[in-house]
Amino acid sequence: MKRKVLVIAYNFPPLGGGGVQRTLKFSRYLPLFGWEPIILTVSKPDSLLWDYSLVKELPADLRIFRAPAFELSKWEKRFFSLFKPAANSRAEKKGSGPHLPQEAKAHLPNLRALLKRIYMFLTLWLRVPDDQVGWVPFAILKGLSLIKSKKIDLIYTTSPPHSSQLIGLFLSKLSGKPWVADFRDDWLEDEQRISHYPGFYLRMERCLGKKLITNISCLIANTEFKKETYDKNYPQAKRIVVIQNGFDAEDLMRARQKQDKWLDDKLHLCHTGYFYPGIALSFFETLKEFFLENPELRGKIQLDLVGYLEEEYRDSIIKNQLEDVVKLWGYVEHLSSINFLLKSHLLIHLIGSEGEFWKGVVAGKLYEYLASGKPILSFAPKDGESEKMILQANSGWVLDLNDKKGIKLKLKQICELFFRGELKVEQNRSYVGGFERKNLTRKLSLVFENCLTQK
């Protein structure tokens, strides 16, 4: 008889994006190791990324329950849309809105910015620990009902959003069930969060974080670097284990069955997923310099960007005159993104390179990059987790994003290898195989078993 785990995850199909994959794959493979997952997620999430193809991957007998949420972001969009000049212009043309004098229109952007600052300050107390906190009370009520009716043995929460961990805290306290908390991304250690929020807010979060950590039966980190950080910052934690992100061999097999090829003879560079804000701007500047110095290569290289792209990067591509080199494919279904990896010649991996924080960051895409067997050109911190993985897998090169001269030289060498038909890597497949999703799910099942026996 399978034991039952209540899986609490805001990000779950049909939502798309990298944050969905970890929970989806755990839920799919846990039954192989004696655990039946019962899913508790949100009913109408406010998200830009949707991937209905992922629903097909869910087991037919997987039980999924959804709780409503009061989404602050939805109300914000409606409120601030009232102060968009373009919206007022359309209303005036239709005769359905108030006629604003030209002088008033000129002040609308400033008024909107001021109102947003006031609004954010006044609602800051409602955003601890994030914008999705409006899901917490509804999920707690639904969770208590499921724990009782489905005879749940253990609670598993995954974040971000980190408000999901609040749900775990309350449900564990109220039910007495052991609780495993999986941190896919940092919360209290997030440097960007620390730099953007006021001191009183951060102190309140740290106080809440300590309360959470004390009550977690087992905390899961997704890299060794993060485990070391958590060990140092949370001496009160009962147990901390590492379960990395990974790749699904079945996804790679299905993508290979449908694999197509580029019909041109260009060198195709590919980046899938999300660019961290501000990080990639210098990369586009370096590309501009590279083509100015090597004009003969301009029509022989294409950079394919697959995934959601922030407006600042779209502007940077235009600013650096790369429209004929960079192809924007937008967000695609997960299997299609793997197809891009398989048919590309070089994979671009880019995260921040400055500060201790980035040393512990391993983007989820890196595992599928490694599984594809294609060469990787990475821009990541020296001695960081990403560099260690790429070098240990013998899968490519890791450069400093600020070393423009070194980057241009490496790109030239890669071009020469490609046009000679010699661009390849002799990968350490046994090392890469350790990141397969079924192997990682086995580790998670053992964590669950230990939490029950040590209860």
Keywords:
globular, 3 domains, 19 helices, six-stranded parallel beta sheet, 13 strands, alpha/beta, Rossmann fold, 455 residues, seven-stranded parallel beta sheet, 15% strand
Q: What do these coordinates show?
A:
By secondary structure, the protein is an alpha/beta fold. The chain folds into three domains: 205 residues, 3-Layer(aba) Sandwich (Rossmann fold); 56 residues, no CATH class; 185 residues, Glycogen Phosphorylase B (Rossmann fold), CATH 3.40.50. Helix content is 47%, strand content 15%. It has 19 helices and 13 strands. A seven-stranded parallel β-sheet has the order 3-2-1-4-5-6-7, sandwiched between helices. α16 links the parallel β12 and β13. α1 packs across α19, α5 packs parallel to α6 and α10 packs across α13. It starts with a strand and ends with a helix. The relative contact order is 0.11.
Oligomeric state:
single chain
Highest CATH level, the class of the largest domain: Alpha Beta
Biggest sheet strand order reads 3-2-1-4-5-6-7
Q: Report the major sheet.
A: 7 strands, parallel
CATH topology of the largest domain: Rossmann fold
Radius of gyration: 24 Å
> Helical stretch count?
19
Helix content: 40-55%
The rounded distance between the terminal residues' Cα atoms is 20 Å
What best-fitting shape do the alpha-carbon axes yield? globular
Strand content: 5-15%
Class from secondary-structure proportions: alpha/beta
What low-confidence regions span 5 or more consecutive residues with pLDDT below 50?
Answer: 86-106
* CATH homologous superfamily descriptor of the largest domain: Glycogen Phosphorylase B
DSSP E strands, number: 13
Please tell me the CATH architecture of the largest domain by its name: 3-Layer(aba) Sandwich
Report the average pLDDT across residues. Answer: 88
Q: Can you tell me the number of structural domains?
A: 3
